[in-house]
């Protein structure tokens, strides 16, 4: 904050009134202690980095713990042996026979039932029980019933588009897995969320687990679950359940705690029991927020279901995965577009459901009296459509051969060829400049330094930035990273993640400040950012594969684009939260726009900047490892290779653990830094 805000009010000497014109003058005398602490931490960080560079120049290439792609450590071999042992005893070991196998059977039965209902032929029918016409009718009716006629039209158009793309069955497989996983997740998540909302003790117990689960990238859930549940739709659904439950638990707990205490006390004074208070007061008043939790669970489930193609989950993710592996950009783009459309439809429907009552209150009520009769008529029409799709082949099989999808794929291939022919000089120059100028030097610093030096630097930085608890967490994570036997690959992933995060924060500050200072810009950009956050990470790889080919740079750029929306929105909200009176005072004191941003708005938004860094790191890490599918190498490649090559399963599982450790270390340090800034 500039001196211009404070100095005019000081009684001291005559020259003080002239000070406000000095936009760069020192902060008021009340803040030297905070300024000294900040400078002190910065100085310590600088000393650590300089010492690292000096020792790197002397010790480069020594004790780097490099491991070749085909090499295994004793830990990796032990995991392989464990996997073989589990496979050999799966049907005789009581733990598997009466627990894991039973869970797998129940989930598999549910998934098979939903698939036979809408996507796969059943035992006595060559087609699903409900054909395309019935599914489109149900989608439109449900969207209208829980939302409004606009989202109903969107749902009908979106589901019809799947058929026009020639991806009806793949889309319905994805929908079946998503619906099954969300159904099971909500059976557990809503009660647990209510419990966490009612009990502060339980909330304190469950919050660290939720933080940990939401920190883990989607990739990491898959390998351990295949050990217990084999590959296939059941394992994919179980992984999706685990990944989709935390948002619903957390948001439901928040909704319950947000109900005004006076309302609950009023119910108690009228003699309401605890159960009546829950059913008649807490849940009805928190319904909108709970539905938003359901929305977040659906989005998380869709993201996981597409990634779960790595463990042989059917659906659109499987089509994208095969296309990425064969570098077929057209097919990948067509299937990726279907995933985006499904995400948008599901998001809009659940968002409209959460806002329906408020929208109804704001309407003039002219059609409110007709809603129930119209819904009844719509229900009858939907039943007729379902019957027709069950009875007639033309209503069960989507007509045509997906000509629209073929045209989309052909257009994507043509565009890719044109871009590679016409813009390769520009894209290659951009890729080489960033790779050679920033990524390679930093990666070399991490991978060519002695392991003990990098470990000491990470622990020291964690302690300085986040405090002694963050330092202890960093020490534990570093020790476990060494134990995975994948130190060099971990450092390569760390380099890509940190470089991408720096670029994300530069974008976040540029666009976030712009949005925070301009309501018009916010209204224009925010819908695009919201839509970008709906898209599963898988989809981001496709356009950049066309631009940059299968390289680690593709994964980094995709990670930047994937993580930037959340960082931009957090920074924009932080800048907007700066009191208008403070900005006006700085303006009246003669500060220009740049000075207001750098001396007032950004310093007063430090907690938002730290939170944006935290979220940016987590988002980038999850995307960088997914980039193992398109040549990113390092830990992402190790995980992918573990799924496709049996002898590398143990290494892939260890790589998943290493990814988790990096995520936990990033999360703990940045969260601790955020708490320090806010204090």
Secondary structure blueprint with pairings:
Blueprint: H1 32-59, H2 74-89, H3 94-118, H4 132-146, H5 149-164, H6 168-198, H7 200-215, H8 218-229, H9 233-258, H10 261-269, H11 274-285, H12 287-307, H13 316-325, H14 329-362, H15 368-391, H16 393-396, H17 403-422, H18 424-447, H19 451-466, H20 468-484, H21 487-517, H22 519-534, H23 537-548, H24 552-576, H25 580-588, H26 593-604, H27 606-626, H28 634-644, H29 649-678
Helix pairs in contact: 1-19, 2-29, 3-6, 3-9, 4-5, 4-15, 5-14, 6-7, 6-9, 6-12, 6-13, 7-9, 8-9, 8-29, 9-12, 10-11, 12-14, 13-14, 14-17, 14-23, 18-21, 19-20, 19-29, 20-29, 21-22, 21-24, 21-27, 22-24, 23-24, 24-27, 25-26, 27-29, 28-29
Q: What do you see in this structure?
A:
This protein is mainly α. The radius of gyration is 28 Å and the shape is globular. It starts with about 30 loop residues before the first helix and ends with a helix. The chain has helices at about 30-60, 75-90, 95-120, 130-145, 150-165, 170-200, 200-215, 220-230, 235-260, 260-270, 275-285, 285-305, 315-325, 330-360, 370-390, 395, 405-420, 425-445, 450-465, 470-485, 485-515, 520-535, 535-550, 550-575, 580-590, 595-605, 605-625, 635-645, 650-679. It is about 80% helix and about 0% strand. About 45% of the residues are buried. Helix 3 crosses helix 6, helix 6 (about 170-200) packs across helix 13 (about 315-325) and helix 28 (about 635-645) packs antiparallel against helix 29.
């Amino acid at each position: 904050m500039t001196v211009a805000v404070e100095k005019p009010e000081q009684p001291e000497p005559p020259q003080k009134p002239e000070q406000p014109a000095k936009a760069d003058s020192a902060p008021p005398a009340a803040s030297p202690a905070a300024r000294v602490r900040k400078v002190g931490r910065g100085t310590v960080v600088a000393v650590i980095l300089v010492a690292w560079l000096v020792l790197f120049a002397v010790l480069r290439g020594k004790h780097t713990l490099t491991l070749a792609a085909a090499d295994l450590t004793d830990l990796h071999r032990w995991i392989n042996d464990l996997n073989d042992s589990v496979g050999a005893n799966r049907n005789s070991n009581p733990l598997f026979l009466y627990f894991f196998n039973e869970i797998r059977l129940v989930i598999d039965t549910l998934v098979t039932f939903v698939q036979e209902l809408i996507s796969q032929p059943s035992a006595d029918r060559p087609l699903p029980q409900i054909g395309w016409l019935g599914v489109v009718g149900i989608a439109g009716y449900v969207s209208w019933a829980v939302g409004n006629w606009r989202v109903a039209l969107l749902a009908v158009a979106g589901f019809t588009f799947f058929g026009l793309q020639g991806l009806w069955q793949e889309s319905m497989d994805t929908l079946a897995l998503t619906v099954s996983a969300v159904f099971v997740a909500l059976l557990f998540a809503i009660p647990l969320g209510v419990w966490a909302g009612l009990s502060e003790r339980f909330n304190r117990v469950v919050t660290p687990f939720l933080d940990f689960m939401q920190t883990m990238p989607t990739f990491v859930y898959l390998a351990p679950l295949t050990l217990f549940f084999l590959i296939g739709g059941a394992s994919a659904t179980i992984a999706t359940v685990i990944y989709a439950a935390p948002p619903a638990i957390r948001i439901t707990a928040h909704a319950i705690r947000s109900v005004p205490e006076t309302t609950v006390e009023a119910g108690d004074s009228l003699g309401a029991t605890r159960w009546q208070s829950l059913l008649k007061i807490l849940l009805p008043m928190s319904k909108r927020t709970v539905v938003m939790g359901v929305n977040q669970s659906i989005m998380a489930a869709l993201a996981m279901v597409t990634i779960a193609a790595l463990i042989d989950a059917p659906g659109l993710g499987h089509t994208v995965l095969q296309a990425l592996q064969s570098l077929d950009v057209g097919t990948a783009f067509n299937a990726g577009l279907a995933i985006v459309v499904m995400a948008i439809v599901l998001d809009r429907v659940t968002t409209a459901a959460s806002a329906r009552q408020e929208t109804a209150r704001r309407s003039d009520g002219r059609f409110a009296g007709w809603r129930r009769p119209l819904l009844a008529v719509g229900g009858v029409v939907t039943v007729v459509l379902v019957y027709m799709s069950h009875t007639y082949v033309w209503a069960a099989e989507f007509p045509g051969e997906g000509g629209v999808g073929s045209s989309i794929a052909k257009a994507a291939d043509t565009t890719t060829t044109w871009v590679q022919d016409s813009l390769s000089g520009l894209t290659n120059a951009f890729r080489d400049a960033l790779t050679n100028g920033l990524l390679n030097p930093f990666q070399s610093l991490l991978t060519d330094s002695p392991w003990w030096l990098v470990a000491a630097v990470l622990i020291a930085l964690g302690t300085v930035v986040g405090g002694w608890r963050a330092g202890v967490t960093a020490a534990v994570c570093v020790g476990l990273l060494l134990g995975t036997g994948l130190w060099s690959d971990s450092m390569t992933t760390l380099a890509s993640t940190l470089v991408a995060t720096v670029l994300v924060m530069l974008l976040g500050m540029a666009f976030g400040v712009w949005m925070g200072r301009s309501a018009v810009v916010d209204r224009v950009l925010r819908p695009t950012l919201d839509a970008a956050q709906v898209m599963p990470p898988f989809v981001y790889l496709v356009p950049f594969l066309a631009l940059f080919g299968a390289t680690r740079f593709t994964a980094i750029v995709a990670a930047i684009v994937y993580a930037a929306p959340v960082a931009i929105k957090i920074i924009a909200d932080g800048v907007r939260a700066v009191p208008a009176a403070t900005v006006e005072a700085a303006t009246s004191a003669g500060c220009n726009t740049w000075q207001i941003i750098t001396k007032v708005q950004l310093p007063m938004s430090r907690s938002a900047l730290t939170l944006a860094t935290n979220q940016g790191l987590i988002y980038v890490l999850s995307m960088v490892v997914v980039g193992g599918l398109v040549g990113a190498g390092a830990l992402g490649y190790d995980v992918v290779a573990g799924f496709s090559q049996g002898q590398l399963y143990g290494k892939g599982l260890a790589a998943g653990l290493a990814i988790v450790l990096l995520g936990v270390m990033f999360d703990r340090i940045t969260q601790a830094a955020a708490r320090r800034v806010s204090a």
